[in-house]
Amino acid sequence: MQPRRVGIVGVPPLSVIRKLNREQCLIVDLDEPQIRKSIELSSNYLPRVYCAILRTVVLNAMHLKLDTIYIDVGPGKCDCALHVAMVLDNILRIPVIKTRNLDDKPFGTSICRSGMPLLEKFRAITRAVSSDAAEAQLPPCAPVAGFWGVPPRDFSILSLFPDTTHIYGWTRCMENKTPANMELETYYNSDVPTVFFAQSFCAKTALAHHLARLHPRSLFLDCDVTAGNSARAKIEAFLELSGVTARRRIS
């Protein structure tokens, strides 16, 4: 018997993840690109000028064989997710279950503060959403740079940062399994140069812009579907001008 294929959007409550793990479901993260198809195929249902993450959700849902979708529509995600849940409910023939994750038990943020390459940190954090278990605690490194924000749709920009980059913002909330923790999301380290990132047209661009204005050494950056040469050049120039000139590995 094939396991049930369940799509998730955002960070569903731990009670939902525990249920899916107990039932041995195959969990598919619909926030991430899962298929090799143009994102423009979602334009029949969402406007082109819209969050690329949620457009990716719709694209995945249209083309993947799923049995159920759980989508967080509470303060741990965004109001737009509620609207997308309505769209999916209208165009799909499977249950689209809305959740509101208000979990407040902290699981820790050791991955965010570790010396792993930044790309690997993000992969580890997004993978962990599908599990209700705590991740193994990793030793922290001293940060030389910061990345604040949501996981970008285009992970390739993460390779521009040194391994000693700490993660802040909603991604840190993801690792902590408390996506609605506003105090944790707004935390940053003013002692390290930090890129404040948001997907274009995401509601979090306002918070990213505001916190970047308060930070003494910051770059506010938003990217749409992919990160072009301009975005990459901005990151590289910012890090170089901040004295962070090379990707440094921790042994």
Question: Can you characterise this structure?
Answer:
This protein has 251 residues and is an alpha/beta fold. The protein folds into two domains: 5-99, Rossmann fold; 118-241, no CATH class. Helices cover 32% and strands 16% of the residues. It contains eight helices and eight strands; from the N terminus they run E-H-E-H-E-H-E-H-E-E-H-H-E-H-E-H. It has helices at residues 14-22, 52-63, 79-91, 118-128, 170-176, 182-185, 204-214, 229-241, and strands at residues 5-9, 26-29, 68-72, 96-99, 145-149, 165-168, 194-199, 218-223. The strands form two sheets. Strands 2-1-3-4 form a four-stranded parallel sheet, sandwiched between helices. A four-stranded parallel sheet has the order 6-5-7-8, with helices on both faces. Helix 2 (52-63) packs parallel to helix 3 (79-91) and helix 4 (118-128) crosses helix 5. The longest helix has 13 residues, at 79-91. The N and C termini lie far apart (44 Å).
Brief description of this entry?
This protein is 32% helix and 16% strand. With 251 residues, it is of the alpha/beta class.
Q: How many helices does DSSP assign?
A: 8
Tell me, briefly, the overall form. globular
The major sheet is characterized as:
4 strands, parallel
Class of secondary structure makeup: alpha/beta
Mean pLDDT: 94
Distance between the termini: 44 Å
Helix content range: 25-40%
Question: Numbering strands along the chain, what is their spatial order in the largest sheet?
Answer: 2-1-3-4
Strand content: 15-25%
Order of helices and strands: EHEHEHEHEEHHEHEH
